[in-house]
Amino acid sequence: MTLQQLKYLLAIEEHRHFVEAARHCHVTQPTLSMMVHKLEEEIGIKIFDRSKKPITPTKDGELILEQAREVLAAARRFEDIASELRGEMRGTLKLGIIPTVAPYLISRFLPHFLNTYPDIHLHITELTTDELTTRLKRHQLDAGILATPLDDPAIREHFLYHEEFVAYVSPDNSLLKKRYLLPDDINPERLWLLEEGHCLRTQIINLCELRRSDSITHRLEYESGSIEALKKMVDAGQGVTILPELAINDLSEEEHDRLRFFKPPAPVREISLITHRHFARQRLLQALAESIRKSVPDSMRKKRRKSIVLSP
Questions:
Q1: DSSP character for 246?
Q2: Helices (H), 44-198
Q3: Strand, helix or coil at 1?
């Protein structure tokens, strides 16, 4: 049994196809198939059901694959610890980031980070919170940027910043007459929300204590995975949506006039850099966190103790 054979197993699990897995591993399909077959013969367990399309792990195979992930993660930690002790800042970092943070943060920190650490290759993927944490625990990601706290013992959280929530209101909305808003001021029937699966949706529902009645018939039901799409609905004269603080920086003067902040204590979300609790590349982690913190306004870097932190 070799580490390379275990990598082949995980490639097949990911791609569910021998040809695609071989292409991913930069080997021929016959070579990959032979090595996997030899491993199955060696341990006496059929790992994949080849009769199904796409290929799926057997029940016993799922246990083998889980252990393969752990073995490969341990091997990577061995290399990472050695690299850390040598003081190196090189290699690949697989980073997940939630969609309500990515468009407003990546362009801020990425140029500085890549220029400062030219030997680091960042592989960034947008994922929902559930997808991100699942991949992190399966050692398919090195780190993630999302809303916390998660209160998960398998994950370490490194605070980055607090981000205030701001209401974005349509031109004819009576909320524009107010200087500051209370959550109760927002009519839930005119509030545009992200679709299910986004933690920002949950935070807004909790903030406004929304309980939509199933008995009410709406002329329009629209949920989106994009904050920008919801903003355009408001621009068209439809209701209100809630924006995170970094999303308002590029607004025009006219759009800024339609922002309304909440009355103190202001609602905020906590954004953190997370890793698996066994993550070994602490020097790289600290460098990334520092680049991110430097890229956001000073007021956001400090924990706003007089604000209300909404749970994701």
A1: G
A2: 59-85, 102-116, 129-137
A3: coil
Backbone φ, ψ for residue 213 (5° rounding): -80, 130
Q: CATH classification of 92-160+271-302, choosing from 3.40.190.10, 3.40.50.2300, 3.40.50.170, 3.40.50.300?
A: 3.40.190.10
CA distance 152 to 132: 13
Q: Is the pLDDT of residue 261 over 90?
A: yes
Confidence of residue 224 (pLDDT cuts 50, 70, 90): low
Please report the DSSP string for 163-195 in residue order: EEEEEEE-TT-GGGG-SEE-GGGS-GGGB--BP
Q: Which CATH class is domain 163-267?
A: alpha beta
Q: Phi/psi class of residue 16: alpha, beta or left (left: φ > 0; alpha: ψ in -120 to 50)?
A: left
Block residue for tokens 């932190």 = 309
Residue 221's pLDDT band (cuts 50, 70, 90): low
pLDDT at 223 (0 to 100): 62
What pLDDT shows up at residue 217?
44
Rounded CA-CA distance 95/141 in Å is 6
Query: How many of the other CB atoms lie within 10 Å of CB of 176?
Result: 16
Average pLDDT score over residue span 239-259? 91
The better pLDDT of the pair 125, 138 is held by: 125
Q: Do domains 3-82 and 163-267 have the same CATH topology?
A: no
What are the sequence ranges of the domains in the chain?
3-82, 92-160+271-302, 163-267
- Interhelix angle 3-15/18-25, rounded to 10 degrees, is 130
Would you say residue 295 has pLDDT above 80?
Answer: yes
